[in-house]
Amino acid sequence: MSTAANTALPAAQSLGHGITCIDTEQMRAGLACCYLLQQGDEAALIECGTSPGVPGLLARLDQMGVKREQVRYVIPTHVHLDHAGGAGLLMRELPNAQLVVHPRGARHLIDPSKLIAGATAVYGAAAVKQMYGEILPIAESRVIVADDGHKLDLGGRELLFVDSPGHARHHFSVWDPASRGFFTGDTFGLSYRVFDGPRGPWLMPTTTPVQFEPEAWEQTLDRYLSHEPRQMYLTHYGAVQDVPKLAGELRAGLADYQRIALDAAALGAQRHAAIKQALYDWSLQQLRLREVDIAEPLARDWLEFDLELNAQGLVVWLDKQSVSH
Fold first, then answer.
1. Tens of pLDDT along 223-271?
2. Which among 142, 151, 187, 324 is most buried, taking Cβ atoms within 10 Å?
3. Would 178 be classed as within a structural domain?
4. Three-state SS for 165?
5. Residue 63: which domain range?
6. Beta carbons of 96 and 41 less than 8 angstroms apart
7. How many other CB atoms are there within 10 angstroms of residue 252's CB atom?
């Protein structure tokens, strides 16, 4: 790893099949996105971003000539705030939209007080306000609860909802037969374009507290592959192809993460620091193996936020393991 990688990405990128990837302006360009689906005169947004990014997202719709009345659905894959924090503000501005949400997540977007409390416990009140802004409730009458197998019609285009635990129990993915692609939220890992190399994209797991469940995640990957997808639309960040290969690499990463956590299990109060350092070592080694041309300080800068959360989530997972055995 030597020179700094080029991080410039377009704020909106057409991916074909009526799908546009739009940066949701969280922390830095290329970190998080949502997807605009257009079919006939109707549109849907998969993922919402955070409230501070909503004005930019609405401005992007205006620039693309998408009327706010045309947006029929707002679809966060799960209720972590980088995916759903802006849902209330978006719904306020999209008069005909219905929110489509996982059964385990619906109550938290109708009344977001527990989401706010949970994020505050992790980040602190000042950071939550800065990162996520105002998190507005959504009227229950505007909410569609999408169980596993739920189907929606978007201008004659069918979308299928697939329960996809592993990262979170309140997580679904959206299968789009038109593009043969899944909108995967976080359950096909993270893959930042800054880490692309000669061997293609690099996927890393995301074990954000508090519902990392590796066995369920393996089953989710099996379900993904059963559809023979051509591409996966990641929230962090963009579309990736060569799905079977990447699924295998993600499985290997999940196994390595569990080994790293278990190796630190006996360290008591030092577990978090040991796990985070091991995740850094593992990540930088993966980038070296893939011959990714990025300076180590920039790589560490991109990794820091996720590896802090991943370490926290692995400590929670270890605690659950010790209780169950």
1. 999 999 999 999 999 999 999 999 999 999 999 999 999 999 999 899 9
2. 187
3. yes
4. coil
5. 12-250
6. no
7. 13
Q: How far apart are CA 229 and CA 116, in angstroms?
A: 35
Domain presence at residue 323: no
156 Ramachandran zone, left/alpha/beta (phi>0; psi -120 to 50): left
How far, in Å, CA of 319 to CA of 272, rounded? 12
| The token pair that represents 95 in the structure block | 């008069």
Cα separations (Å) of 73 from 54, 97, 142? 15, 5, 10
Write out the two tokens for 245: 């290969």
**88 touches 76 (CB < 8 A):** no
CA dist 66 and 20 (Å) reads 12
Q: Is 17 exposed, middle or buried, given 0-12, 13-18 or 19+ CB atoms closer than 10 A?
A: middle
Residue 167 lies in a domain: yes
